[in-house]
Design brief:
Region (Disordered): 1-29
Family: Belongs to the fatty acyl-CoA reductase family.
Oligomer: single chain
Domain Thioester reductase (TE): 51-320
Subcellular location: Peroxisome membrane
Bound molecules: Palmitoyl-CoA, NADPH dihydro-nicotinamide-adenine-dinucleotide phosphate
Largest sheet: 7 strands, parallel
Strand content: 5-15%
Radius of gyration: 28 Å
EC number: 1.2.1.84
Length: 551
């Protein structure tokens, strides 16, 4: 079935009345922002903020930080869609109940009054925002943070284009109608240009003119699009990075009309410090890999030990995003400013080191009901990896499934491994090579902040202590993703000891079995075997005799 690309239709009601927001807002706001003397929290005071993707991983942290560190913010308008049988109000109210908001709740129990959910399905015409809501938003919004995207690596091109590019275009059109807009902040990814080794803080020419691509894909059915996708994305690994690159270009096209900042985070991981260390709520990127390794399921993965693991904590990304919003609105740079939000050039850490710290952390703080003892190894060698997949993934899965079948249960391990292999297969591109990001704008932005803001909105990754961060990250996956209780750690350790004993017993039986088979075929093996057995027997007799004499 063909998915409709409704660009023209989608812009109806948004784009028509578009005006040149930049000129107009400069007139309105020139007196209100007092240059760089205004602190970040002071800037956001009294402001109406529009956020897309607020129910997602980064969006939630953005909402939380704004409410906590900019308590005078006037209101947060969240574009949310109903999903999985839940209304958008229900989703937002569930979100606000989650642990992430504990600190805000403590500071201000009525914080929910500042949150205004707006029903919106971004891939629908006009973003599916009601005319009344469009009017409301255009009248009051001061800053837009556009976080929504599909981040799936296997997303069909048409859908990725609809959400990551066309919806961004529609949002830009809406933004241009906003009478008091001061900044439009777009969240991109450091991997949008992963077809390059060195990436500067500039928008590179798009692989194809987005408008032309949208027009061509409109008449193609999904099958044809699937067939031509590899040709279109070229040396990029997936539709995600490809469409994020197109989106950057689309955003840049509006730089004459809007004040734009583009944030390019690398691999976003658990929080470093805020609201508490190790907060994470999903399996994306490395988190799923860490969990699979901690559960003893993942034993091998293709990654380069010496390649830089460009992880960036989510709170760092959000602090930089809020600072960029402030800077964009206050300084109104002529062109869109791109911020490569990465760690590799400033405080590098490597995949080999990550492996070491993840493994030792899960040994100290084991996950419950591990399949095997955590012991994952990474290798850049394809054949070695395939060997370990066979020996350490497929063989144990086969045995376990056999055991499940024999005990009348449904086999499941092979299915889990197949899904895991699909997931890590999609991630390997990022863990097997190095990129070099220039992050001068991140440094420039830091230098613009007051000492107080530098502390409150800390994105100085030079201070990041990696081993400590990874330890908190692993504990975070246990506490917040798997909802496991820390008080169960002794039982989990006991379980690991049991697994170790099972492994020793299994290995011993295996050696004996192989040896017996060998003995049956070789006279020399038989002689050695009898020699060893008689030696053991003599030793035991001696031991027994000497203990009888002593008694
Ligand atoms: C100790 C070792 C150190 C070395 C460690 C190297 C780490 C090397 C990381 C590089 C990381 C680059 C990141 C680029 C930086 C961006 O640009 S960030 C954007 C990041 N985007 C993502 O990470 C999305 C990737 N995920 C996907 O595209 C989809 O989830 C997948 C993998 C295609 C699977 O889709 P699906 O089959 O429809 O199903 P889905 O419900 O999504 O998940 C299915 C199963 O896969 C599991 N899964 C999902 N994601 C993962 C994952 N990342 N890992 C494992 N399992 C996963 C789920 O838990 C789930 O398991 P069950 O709960 O069903 O048992
Ligand atoms: N996570 C990472 O490692 C990185 C992320 N990024 C970028 O950061 C941004 C946020 O990523 P992250 O928070 O991890 O992603 P998530 O997948 O956690 O969140 C995506 C958000 O987009 C919303 N969304 C998706 N489709 C629609 C739609 N059709 N209509 C309305 N809303 C929709 C989701 O809403 P819903 O809950 O309804 O599905 C959700 O709130 C993205 O732009 C991503 O490209 C960049 C680099 C790394």
């Amino acid at each position: 079935m063909s998915t409709e690309l409704s660009e023209g239709q989608g812009l109806d009601g948004l784009g028509e009345q578009a005006t040149n927001g930049k000129t107009r807002q400069s007139d309105i706001c020139s007196g209100t922002t007092g240059g760089s003397m205004v602190s970040i929290a002071e800037y956001y005071a009294g402001k109406n903020v529009l956020i897309t993707g607020a129910t997602g991983f980064m969006g939630k942290v953005l909402v939380e930080k704004l409410l906590r560190s900019c308590p005078e913010v006037k209101a947060l308008y969240l574009l949310v869609r109903p999903k999985a049988g839940q209304s958008m109000q229900q989703r937002v109210s569930d979100m606000m109940k989650c642990k992430l908001f504990d600190r805000v709740r403590e500071d201000n129990p009525d914080f929910h009054q500042k949150i205004i959910p707006i029903s919106s399905e971004l891939i629908q015409p006009g973003l599916a925002i009601s005319p009344e809501d469009v009017e409301r938003l255009t009248a009051c919004i001061n800053i837009v943070f556009h976080c929504a995207a599909t981040i799936r690596f296997d997303e069909p091109l048409k859908h990725a284009l609809q959400l990551n590019v066309i919806a961004t275009q529609k949002l830009l059109s809406l933004a241009q109608q906003m009478h008091h807009l001061e900044a439009f902040i777009h969240i991109s990814t450091a991997y949008a240009n992963c077809n390059r080794r060195h990436i500067d803080e500039v928008i590179y020419p798009p692989p194809v003119e987005p408008k032309k691509l949208i027009e061509s894909l409109e008449w193609m059915d999904d099958g044809i699009v699937r067939d031509i996708t590899p040709r279109l994305i070229g040396t990029r690994p997936n539709t995600y990075t490809y469409t994020k690159a197109l989106a950057e270009y689309v955003v840049q096209q509006e730089q004459d009309k809007l004040n734009i900042g583009i944030i390019r985070p690398s691999i976003v991981g658990a929080s470093w410090q805020e609201p508490f260390p190790g907060w994470i709520d999903n399996f994306n990127g490395p988190s799923g890999v860490f969990i699979a390794a901690g559960k003893g399921i993942l034993r091998t993965m293709r990654a380069n030990n010496d390649a830089v693991a460009d992880l960036i904590p989510v709170d760092v990304v959000i602090n930089l995003t809020l600072a960029a919003g402030w800077y964009t609105a206050v300084h109104r740079p002529k062109n869109a400013v791109v911020y490569n939000c990465t760690t590799g050039g400033i405080n590098p850490f490597h995949w080999g080191e990550i492996e070491h710290h993840v493994m030792s952390s899960f040994k100290r703080n084991p996950l419950e009901q591990a399949f095997r003892r955590p012991n994952a190894n990474i290798t850049s060698n394809y054949l070695i990896n395939q060997y370990w997949i066979l020996v350490s993934h497929k063989f144990p899965a086969l045995i376990y499934d056999l055991f499940l079948r024999l005990s009348g249960q449904k086999p499941q391990m092979m299915r889990i491994f197949n899904r895991l292999h699909k997931a890590i297969g999609l991630l390997e591109y990022f863990s097997s090579q190095d990129w070099e990001w220039n992050s001068e704008n991140m440094t420039m932005l830091m230098n613009q902040l007051t000492p107080e803001d530098r502390k409150t909105f800390n994105f100085d990754v030079r201070q990041l202590n990696w081993p400590e961060y990874i330890e908190n990250y692993c504990i975070g996956t246990k506490k917040y993703v798997l909802n496991e209780d820390m008080s169960d750690i002794p039982a989990a350790r006991q379980h690991l000891r049991k697994l170790r004993n099972i492994r020793y017993t299994f290995n011993t039986l295996l050696v004996v079995f192989i040896w017996r088979v060998f003995i049956a075929r070789s006279q020399m093996a038989r002689n050695i075997w009898y020699f060893v057995v008689s030696l053991c027997f003599k030793f035991l007799s001696y031991f027994r005799a000497s203990s009888t004499i002593t008694n």
